[in-house]
Fold this protein.
Amino acid sequence: MTSRPTTAQHLSDLARLRRVRDRIDREYDRPLNVEALARGVHMSAGHLSRQFRLAYGESPYSYLMTRRIERAMALLRRGDLSVTEVCFAVGCASLGTFSTRFTELVGVPPSTYRRQAAGAAEGIPPCVAKQVTRPIRSRQAPAADPD
């Protein structure tokens, strides 16, 4: 007897992981945690986290925060909301956690990004702006200039 999953089980797990990822994409602005996501696909939280990381290269929480930061970047580029309003609009409950994660992914704090992006994407189609400004994975953001 082996502990390796069968092909059918592996495909079933991949389908459930896709449902979790799709749910995160749809409901990024709602309170989500790994336990609730795992319950929704009848997996344990630990198994979901391990399998999600194997399939997508990051934890479900990291994926969720990346989606939230992507949306926050779009809202900050619009310029009509404060950083605090954007934080809560994308589903973050803590301004500190939001700011820290934003800075890790984007390379600058949200307030700086908002100031810099105010007119930078003007005239660029939104679909192109989204691709050009997509956040970089954790600890890969270029170092900010000390100026």
The chain has eight helices and no strands. Helices lie at 7-27, 34-40, 45-56, 60-78, 83-89, 95-106, 110-117, 126-132. The chain has a mean pLDDT of 85. Residues 7-27 form the longest helix (21 residues).
